[in-house]
Amino acid sequence: MTDHTTHQQRLHGPGLTDVRMMKVAHSSFRRELGLSPAAVRGVRAGDQRRTTTVADHVDLFLSLLHHHHTIEDDLLWSALLTRVPQELAPLVHVMESQHEQVADHLHLAHQALDRWRRTASGADGEMLAELLAELCTALFEHLHAEETHLLPIMVQHLTAAEWEEFTDQGMSSIPKRMMLLGFGMMLYEGDPDVIALELRKLPAPLRRLLPPLGRRAYRRYARRLHGTPAPQRGAGVPA
């Protein structure tokens, strides 16, 4: 088996496929889902307008997470199992179990979210907040395991074209009307070097305009949703 310790922090470099964008995506999931229980609990019972605002946010990230895990299974996991089954053998059970746990929590959270959206009741909001907290516990454990054990394998055994397809499909799940906001969410905590690489793919005018516009869009959104233009960074990251 390859020594993972050697490659654990090498997620890019000569002869390797740069998979650092995965950690950028994970930072947004950790922050926005990690802060969601507090956002739900901050809604006054019976405030239908505020309930809708927060519910839309939670629904967006639950859907993005489901899509993220679906394309991981379809595009990454199956390819790696074919190429390096011996390296993945110790991880298969853990990763499959974690995905199942996250999927179960996602299902329950979606049900509770639909109920809270309809009723705007305090009790339904508290139930949703508790389920989101449980989802985050399972999700953050999985993301840490993925970053620690899977990314070092991906960097060596996925092609650049396969990774590009994965990232393209990941971006396609963000509603077009929210693309600017989505970019701002990634900018907020994402590795600047990785963001710069993504920007290089765009025409020069967009490379200049997107960062300030994206940051502004996220500041407005965060103020409306979290009550501050600068919400807590590093939510869900192991100490």
UniProtKB/TrEMBL annotation:
Gene3D superfamilies named in the record: nmb1532 protein domain like (1.20.120.520)
Transmembrane domains' residue ranges: none
Domain spans labelled Hemerythrin-like: 18-153
PANTHER family per the UniProt record, alphabetical: BLL2471 PROTEIN-RELATED, DUF438 DOMAIN-CONTAINING PROTEIN
Pfam family, one: Hemerythrin
GO CC terms, sorted: plasma membrane
Stated name of the protein: Hemerythrin-like domain-containing protein
Organism: Kribbella shirazensis
